[in-house]
């Protein structure tokens, strides 16, 4: 079969597919994190005015803060709901169709948001944020799964990590659109909240043109012809036999097995340490406090001594830092490996959290300490982007097989969103209560996470999933090597590829 243009075609199709899926997927997560910071004051005023008009009640400051916190944090509860329904949706509709159907939640949310001001209803904002949270929860689970199952083995990490790059880009985009000069003004905040419909529309127009996940087509639907066609479109005119063999091997080893439920994973010893790994890393991703900085950037920078009129411009720098770091991580991950990037990111975050605490303590004594505090926030976010932001989402794809993967993503996503809700609720009170020591709890989380990764998480870079499975087997059945046969369900091979044969 001719090879002319194959690499170019593969690269172009894969890149366009990634962009189409991500612009209405994980980009939405970052975008919807960021846009809530700019209209904080305006929405709080709207809440107060609504209570005054309806019930002639003037809310106290803490009451307005409480309602605002509910509006912000309901996004996380929606995300938790989205993570729970993502698994069944991907099994029934497939990865690509699931992303397309997910836009129903997004468009409904945009409608509620844009109508809230005219309807004089802050409850519509709450509903909108809950629905957009569901949309983000689904996409955060489905998109990495779609990418991991569609990418060739040598690009699996880089393609999967692009989800984090688009998340960070969404943060920057949300911060820019949220400037007072654009949609962050008192007159336009309802349009800012509804602007997330635009990336969704772009996805609805473009994604139908791209193929479904080859692994889903062959393993879940048993359609070998469609699988080969999808592989050809994603990888060019010819398909490496090793890629097809990998999928055929996994199909053979999961034949007759039904998709597993989260409860089955919790009771299956053969995946115990895989499960522990994704629970710890997914929880640490939020308990480290990074995403809460985007929710409450005004609180953080005000505490750091930044003038109020400059905060909206400073916050753009936080998103730009993570975006830059995610791109660098994307370039390094196939060289340095997942374990190195993840552990290194958590260690650096621990260091910067400590320096930030010292800087806040000395602000009253040294004039330039506020600038050091601001620098620490940027380096903290930079360190997060270099490892935890992207690597965390790759792990379930690489350490679970096709039957367990949707349930694994449900568990990982649930932990991520549940912990985002917890940190989102307590963060403003943590800042006001602990003051200069507000980042100490996050430093502890980062240190403990780095220790776990260093001691227990195997490296997955460039390894077949059978090799990764064997390493986890040593942990799952430590001292009981004779029981290897009992973990057949969790073990699967992708095979080591011959490099030249094509089909």
UniProtKB/TrEMBL annotation:
Stretches for region Disordered: 479-503
Pfam families (alphabetical): Sugar_tr
Family per similarity comment: Belongs to the major facilitator superfamily. Sugar transporter (TC 2.A.1.1) family. Glucose transporter subfamily.
Main location: membrane
Localisation per UniProt entry: Cell membrane, Sarcolemma; Cell membrane
Catalytically driven reaction(s): D-fructose(out) = D-fructose(in)
Protein name: Solute carrier family 2, facilitated glucose transporter member 5
Record membrane topology: Multi-pass membrane protein
Gene3D superfamilies: MFS general substrate transporter like domains
Keyword DNA-binding in record: no
Positions of the Major facilitator superfamily (MFS) profile domain: 18-461
Keywords carried by this UniProt record: Cell membrane, Membrane, Sugar transport, Transmembrane, Transmembrane helix, Transport
Keyword Isomerase on entry: no
Source organism superkingdom: Eukaryota
NCBIfam families: SP
GO CC, any one term: sarcolemma
SUPFAM superfamilies for the chain: MFS general substrate transporter (SSF103473)
GO terms under biological process: D-glucose import; dehydroascorbic acid transport; fructose import across plasma membrane
Membrane spanning residue stretches: 12-31, 66-87, 99-118, 124-142, 154-177, 189-210, 311-333, 340-366, 372-395, 407-427, 433-457
Molecular functions (GO terms): D-glucose transmembrane transporter activity; fructose transmembrane transporter activity
């Amino acid at each position: 079969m001719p090879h002319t243009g194959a690499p170019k075609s593969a690269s172009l199709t894969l890149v366009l597919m990634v962009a189409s899926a991500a612009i209405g997927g994980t980009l939405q997560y970052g975008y919807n994190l960021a846009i809530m910071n700019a209209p904080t004051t305006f929405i709080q005023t709207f809440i107060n005015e609504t209570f005054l008009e309806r019930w002639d009640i003037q809310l106290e400051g803490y009451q307005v803060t409480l309602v605002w916190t509910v509006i912000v944090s309901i996004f996380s509860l929606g995300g938790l709901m989205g993570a729970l329904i993502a698994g069944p949706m991907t099994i029934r509709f497939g990865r690509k169709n699931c992303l397309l159907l997910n836009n129903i939640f997004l468009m409904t949310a945009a409608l509620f948001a844009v109508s809230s001001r005219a309807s004089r209803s802050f409850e519509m904002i709450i509903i909108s944020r809950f629905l957009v949270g569901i949309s983000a929860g689904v996409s955060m689970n489905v998109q990495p799964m779609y990418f991991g199952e569609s990418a060739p083995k040598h690009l699996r990490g880089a393609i999967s990590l692009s989800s984090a790059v688009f998340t960070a880009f969404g943060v920057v985009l949300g911060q820019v659109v949220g400037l007072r000069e654009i949609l962050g003004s008192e007159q336009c905040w309802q349009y800012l909240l509804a602007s997330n419909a635009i990336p969704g529309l772009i996805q609805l127009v473009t994604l139908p043109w791209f193929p479904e996940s080859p692994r889903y087509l062959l393993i879940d639907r048993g359609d070998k012809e469609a699988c080969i066609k999808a592989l050809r479109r994603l990888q060019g005119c010819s398909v490496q036999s090793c890629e097809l063999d990998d999928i055929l091997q996994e199909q053979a080893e999961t034949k007759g097995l039904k998709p597993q439920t989260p409860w089955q994973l919790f009771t299956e010893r053969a995946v115990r340490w895989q499960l522990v790994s994704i629970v710890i890393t997914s929880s640490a991703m939020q308990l480290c406090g990074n995403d809460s900085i985007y929710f409450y950037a005004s609180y953080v920078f005000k505490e750091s001594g930044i003038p109020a009129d400059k905060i909206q411009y400073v916050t753009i720098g936080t998103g730009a830092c993570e975006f830059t770091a995610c791109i660098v991580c994307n370039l390094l991950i196939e060289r340095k490996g997942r374990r190195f990037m993840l552990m290194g990111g958590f260690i650096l975050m621990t260091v910067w959290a400590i320096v930030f605490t010292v800087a806040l303590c000395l602000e009253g004594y040294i004039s330039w300490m506020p600038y050091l505090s601001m620098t620490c926030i940027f380096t903290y976010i930079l360190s997060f982007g270099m490892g935890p932001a992207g690597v965390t989402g790759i792990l379930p794809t690489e350490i679970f097989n096709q039957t367990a993967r949707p349930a694994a993503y449900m568990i990982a996503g649930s932990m991520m969103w549940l912990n985002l809700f917890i940190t989102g609720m307590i963060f403003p009170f943590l800042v006001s209560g602990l003051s200069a020591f507000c980042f100490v709890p996050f430093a502890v989380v980062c240190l403990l996470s780095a220790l776990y990764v260093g001691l227990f998480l195997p490296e997955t870079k460039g390894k077949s999933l059978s090799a990764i499975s064997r390493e986890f087997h040593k942990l799952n059945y430590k001292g009981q090597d004779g029981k290897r046969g009992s973990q057949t369900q969790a073990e699967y091979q992708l095979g080591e590829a011959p490099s030249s044969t094509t089909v």
